[in-house]
Amino acid sequence: DLLIPYKRYEAECIEDVLTNPSTHIVPADDSTLSRWHGWFHQFVDYWIGCLNSIMVRTNQGNIPRNITSKCSGTALQ
To answer: CA 55, CA 49: separation in Å to the nearest integer?
Structure first.
């Protein structure tokens, strides 16, 4: 809910749709679900950049060169 203000659905619902596109139980129109996917893919690189910037500013150590390749699956994870 911090990154998704003024949405009608809880962040958990949106996350469920993005992580489980074929098995979610969120009651929403297909156009809404499609918009969520487009919206996420449009901003994921920006959010990764923000997290990298926070790591640098708080001196949390070295940043992996390819941060997304070490994830266990999707960019959302």
So the answer is: 10
Distance in angstroms (rounded) separating the CA atoms of residues 58 and 20: 33
How many other β-carbons are positioned within 10 Å of the β-carbon of residue 60?
9
39-64: per-residue pLDDT in tens?
Answer: 888 988 898 888 888 888 887 666 55
- Alpha carbons 3 and 26: distance in angstroms, whole number: 19
Rounded to whole angstroms, the Cα distance separating 31 from 17 reads: 13
Instruction: Please give the single-letter amino acid code of residue 15.
Output: E
Q: DSSP string covering 36-66, please? A: HHHHHHHHHHHHHHHHHHHHHHTT--PPPTT
- Measuring CA to CA, which residue among 36, 34, 30 is closest to residue 10? 36
